[in-house]
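User: Here's a protein and a ligand (manganese (II) ion). What would the complex look like?
Assistant: Let me lay out the input and then the predicted complex.
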Amino acid sequence: MLILVTNDDGVYSPGLALLASSLSSIGQVVVVAPDRERSAIGHALTLHSPLRAELIKPDTYAVDGTPTDCVNLGIHGLFEARPDLVVSGINRGANMGEDVTYSGTVSAAMEAMLMGVPSFAVSLDLLSGERSDYAAAGRVAKDLAATILRHGLPDDTFLNVNVPAGTPKGIRMTRQGKRRYEEMIVEKVDPRGRKYYWIGGGQCQFEPIPGSDFLALSDGFVSVTPLHLDLTNHHSFDSLRQWRTTSDAAFFYTENK
Ligand code: MN
């Protein structure tokens, strides 16, 4: 089994090394990861400049691109064999709720799914103040990888895995939760008297939605959320159909059945 490992914290991050060594007992691991931190780069793909992949040690490539670029090179460019599994992480910090749309870690797994390779993202919570243990997250990733290699994943599905700080009490299947955003921007003045802004100053708050990723972690459980890429809000069709456009034509939609 060939397992492609990537991340968005960069090729030298401790979570990546731990993930690669955890998975090495169940398959041949190859690492293709960004040459520097690319957290919150989302699903960005490099189209307007060339990419270099430098072999920095055996089976480990550093790419001057995004996590999505790395998955592209790892599946289509660098190796003769197609990977059987792509695992992204172990991210430094949880990726839950709407944050999955910013996350390079989650986007790498998403890219693999789009290319038809089973995948999951794994992130470790650092916010609870407890000591976070990458080894526990590595054990979770290894178990899950072995299970996916045995059973596969449903169509159009990849998994977003979040591991709590401390020793996990168990594993819960969850739904994507909702964050509460507040006080996100810090405004300061630079030494020359000009204002600057820094995004990300707020506390991480979440809605207490039953069955959500946030609740699983706050209860001390590993959260496993099956994700897909259809962002259509099917519930909105009924109310949007009531609209009239300026040309007085009503919206309509057709369900293909
Ligand atoms: Mn990251």
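Summary: The helical segments are 14-23, 67-77, 104-114, 134-151, 213-218, 237-240.
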